[in-house]
Amino acid sequence: MPERCPECGSKVVREEGEAVSRCIGSNCPAQLKETIRHYASRNAMDIEGLGDAVVSQLVDRGLVKGIADIYSLDIDSLTGLERYGEKSARNLLEQIARSRERGLDRFLYGLGIRHIGRAAAESLASRFDDIDELTGATKEELTEIDGIGNIVADSVIDYFSEQSNIEMIEQLKKAGISMVSSRPRSSALSGRTFVFTGSLDEYARTEAGELVKSLGGKIGSNVTKKTDFVVAGKAPGSKLEEARKLGVKVIDEAEFKRLIAEKKPDVVT
Q1: Cβ atoms 56, 34 nearer than 8 A
Q2: Is residue 21 located within the same domain as residue 72?
Q3: Domain assignment of residue 233, yes or no
Q4: Which of 61, 88, 164, 203 is least surrounded by CB atoms within 10 angstroms?
Q5: Neighbouring-strand partners of residue 229
Q6: Which residues form the domain of 113?
Q7: What is the pLDDT of residue 5?
Q8: Can you give the pTM of this predicted structure?
Q9: CA distance 109 to 39
Q10: For 45-63, what is each residue's pLDDT tens digit?
């Protein structure tokens, strides 16, 4: 297996049990179009208008050679694209400008680091204040975070050990991208992890999760020894049994509502 990518010179990794080696360079020409599409996607930096056709033209014409180049685009470069008028160009530039303030969690997801989905990105952003703190994190610090295991931690460390990725991040900083955690101001539930199982009467699952996050808590997808509360609604699944086996505190929806109201007085009981 080659140690370096023949296209961009970045480190090449192959995980145990996989037959394919992968380049971890975010600006690798061989995967640049897909990298930018992912970066601009709704759950990442949400740059509406930066779709497949536009990305392909920008890369093929050499206008974008890396993620940071997105933020150097102007009216002239965009109106030179096929079927792209001034109004469309201005709308896209506005969307690009807005993407500078999406926050650390969406930025991390947008980087396309292997094994870092939305949940993992949110967990990392809730633990570290900014990108600099994260890039210096040890494997031990990473695996202490709920939902971050050895494979994910190794992937994060590999990504930030690649100099070309660090250089790209520095370019994005200069472009004004916010890489600071948007963790909630309230810390009433700081460090507490909640897992939901079953349906709730008064809350959608996402709404309940946002309430927890607004108070500094975290949402887990699985019950572990690090879980603090399992909220059991109607028709709970196997997570309830797992919580009982592990001795994790189980509360019902009424108890959850009281707990939230105690921490956030403006919640009506």
Answers
A1: no
A2: yes
A3: yes
A4: 61
A5: 194, 249
A6: 1-183
A7: 87
A8: 0.68
A9: 8
A10: 999 999 999 999 999 999 9
Q: Are strands 12-13 and 22-23 parallel, antiparallel or unpaired?
A: antiparallel
The rounded percent of the chain whose pLDDT value lies above 70 is: 93
- The whole-angstrom separation of Cα 193 and Cα 29 is 40
DSSP of 113-151, one letter per residue?
A: -TT--HHHHHHHHHH-SBHHHHHT--HHHHHTSTT--HH
| Residues 160 and 201 reside in one and the same domain | no
Which neighbouring-strand residues pair with 234?
199
Q: Is residue 268 part of a domain?
A: no
**Residues 231, 248 contacting (CB under 8 angstroms):** no
**Tokens 């969406």 map to which residue?**
106
pLDDT tens per residue across span 201-243: 998 887 888 788 878 888 888 999 989 999 999 999 999 999 9
Considering the domain architecture, whether residues 111 and 4 belong to the same structural domain is answered as yes
Torsion 65-71-76-79 (CA) sign:
positive
Q: Give the pLDDT score at 29.
A: 80
Asked if 81 and 62 count as a contact pair (C-beta separation under 8 A), the reply is: no
> Is 234 among the domain residues?
yes
Q: What angle do helix axes 163-174 and 150-161 make, rounded to 10 degrees?
A: 70
Question: Which of 183, 210, 245 finishes a domain?
Answer: 183
The tokens describing 151, both together, are 């494979």
We report the CATH number of the domain holding residue 85 as: 1.10.150.20
Structure tokens at 207: 């709404």
